Write a sequence for this structure.
């Protein structure tokens, strides 16, 4: 998930940079009441929180997009010889 990142701080707080191990961002989304109730019920049934459920589903979606992108690259690489032969270097 999160990796350590170097973040500059204002000079009044600290000179130079500091390693931040776990940094999260606060995001506000608007949900209609029925959807929020369904989301809370699903989170409760899974023994987790709404925030954790949204995070997990979002990460899974992003991971799936990444896998699809990488598989497209692999498929293109499989046919690279043909493109080289057909269209030149």
């Amino acid at each position: 998930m999160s990796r350590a990142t170097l973040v500059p701080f204002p000079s009044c707080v600290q000179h130079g940079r500091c390693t931040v191990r776990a940094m999260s961002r606060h995001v506000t989304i608007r949900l209609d009441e029925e959807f929020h109730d369904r989301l809370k019920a699903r989170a409760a049934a899974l023994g987790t929180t709404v925030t954790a459920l949204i995070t997990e589903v979002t990460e899974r979606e992003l991971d799936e997009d990444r896998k699809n992108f990488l598989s497209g690259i692999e498929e293109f690489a499989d046919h690279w010889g043909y493109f080289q032969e057909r269209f030149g270097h």
Remarks:
- The chain has three helices and two strands.
- The chain has a mean pLDDT of 77.
- Residues 5-87 form one domain.
- The CA atoms of residues 40 and 61 lie 20 Å apart.
